[in-house]
Write a structure and sequence with these properties.
single chain; alpha/beta; Aspartate Aminotransferase, domain 1; Aspartate Aminotransferase, domain 2; seven-stranded mixed β-sheet; four-stranded mixed β-sheet; 17 strands; about 15% strand; binds pyridoxal-5'-phosphate
Length: about 425
């Protein structure tokens, strides 16, 4: 179908929530590795991976084979009412590769539902209802997810669930306390105690956080943060839920799960996105005593579908066999070094930050007002990259942060190409020629 016709049908029949990034939406038809192609044959390097989901690359042969093998059995769906080997094997694998203590998995079709189940589990196991999440955090779009998220752009409903309190995000570029890291005494972390004292009865069900906030604008949590906050939460009876939906499966390099680099063990962990390379799957994995404390019935029709579990097993195998975690670290360093050069060169680049293959550029307005967000510059940069055949993401409370999260298989040569395109786009933005 011709693109204009597609766009017209999109406007007529798709909900406005079916949001497109670009003014003129791009239709993607084919993909291989880090490359995708639109309906007219234009190729793009995909540095967003369907929102950090295509972890081992588009059309990975081992994932495709595993799914086809599963589909050929005719058993596409079983629901959690029946056993299926792929689901059990995946649960076993996850217990082996997640931090010590995490052992029992519950499968859902998405990350948002994994969050929801994690919170329910924490509430049932503790008997408490207060939950702490971070301003600038994001954990999905269920009704509960909408309460947990700390960005007004995603909270178009009044607060429905009592008990969610937002702690200041450890967002050093825009510190809520006006400090400069590391000479800040980690006031944001210690403030969690005050938040509990002033806004709760002192009994906490859970604290949920991402090691690197994704949608919030790729904000890595400082190294000391969790070491301070998690004991505070434990002292008030609560559990630490680590949201690894974006940071998991090796994206940060060095370790399989982001939180392992902070030296803190979560009580519950959620994952989705990259775990099955795009096949729908969410996971809530918990310590056995927490997992076993659930009561009543819980059900997700598509939770742990055989083909999604087969895809996840193949994805995890590919990450191990192809050394993709190590690749994320190595190529991530090259990416980061060049982004730091951009920071020194372009006055409208306010901050660059990230970890492994999860990096960001935050655009600001040049002028008297320090660090004033420049969402229009981010939009121009994105558009300019698109014209030059590069797909990237955008996020942050002000929409001024560029999000870079390519498949973990991106090569050194490909990342240098990406950086070349970004440099051209930055020059074009500076010159005002787009
Ligand atoms: C950190 C994080 N948690 C949870 C979710 C929700 O996952 P899903 O969109 O699969 O519901 C997302 C989605 O972007 C996410 O980035």
């Amino acid at each position: 179908m011709d693109i204009e016709q597609l766009r017209e049908l999109q406007n007529r029949y798709l909900s406005p929530w079916d949001k497109q990034y670009y003014e003129h939406s791009i239709d993607l038809e084919r993909g291989k590795g880090v490359l995708v192609r639109d309906g007219r044959g234009k190729k793009y390097i995909d540095c967003f991976g369907g929102v950090l989901t295509t972890s081992v690359g588009h059309g990975h042969p081992k994932v495709t084979e595993a799914v086809i093998r599963q589909l050929k059995t005719g058993m596409i769906h079983t629901s959690t009412v029946y056993l299926h080997e792929a689901r059990v094997r995946l649960a076993q694998k996850l217990a082996e590769i997640t931090p010590d203590g995490l052992q029992k998995s519950y499968f859902t079709p998405s990350g948002g539902e994994a969050t929801d189940r994690a919170i329910q589990m924490a509430m049932m196991a503790t008997g408490n209802t207060d939950i702490i999440s971070l301003c600038h955090g994001y954990h999905g779009q269920t009704l509960l997810g909408k309460q947990l998220v700390g960005q007004k752009t995603w909270r178009e409903l009044p607060s429905l669930v009592a008990g969610v309190k937002h702690a200041p995000h450890p967002y050093c570029f825009r510190c809520s306390f006006g400090h400069k890291y590391p000479g800040c005494g980690m006031e944001c972390a210690h403030y969690v105690q005050e938040l509990i004292n002033t806004t709760t009865e002192g009994r906490i069900a859970a604290f949920i956080a991402e090691p690197v906030a994704g949608i919030g604008g790729i904000i890595p949590v400082p190294k000391e943060y969790f070491e301070i906050v998690v004991p505070i939460i434990h002292a008030h009876g609560g559990f630490f839920i680590c949201d690894e939906v974006q940071t998991g499966v090796g994206r940060l390099g060095e370790t399989m799960w982001g939180i392992e680099q902070w030296g803190v063990e979560p009580d519950i962990m959620t994952m989705a996105k990259g775990i099955a390379n795009g096949f729908p799957l969410g996971v809530t994995i918990a310590q056995p005593e927490i997992a076993n404390a659930v009561r009543g019935l819980n059900f997700a029709t598509y939770g742990g579908n055989p083909f999604s579990c087969a895809a996840a097993l193949a994805t995890l195998q590919a990450i191990e066999d192809e050394g993709l975690m190590e690749n994320a670290e190595r190529v991530g360093k090259i990416l980061r070094e060049k982004l730091c050069e951009f920071l020194d060169t372009y006055g409208f680049v306010g901050d660059v930050r990230g970890w492994g293959l999860m990096q960001s550029i935050e655009f600001i307005k040049e002028g008297d007002e320090p660090n004033k967000p420049a969402p229009e510059t981010a939009a121009q940069f994105m558009e300019s990259c698109r014209e030059r055949g590069l797909l990237i993401g955008r996020g942050g409370l002000y929409g001024n942060c560029i999000r870079i999260g390519p498949p973990l298989c991106i090569t050194e040569e490909e990342i240098r190409q990406v950086l070349e395109v970004m440099e051209q786009a930055l020059r074009a933005v500076r010159a005002g020629v787009l």
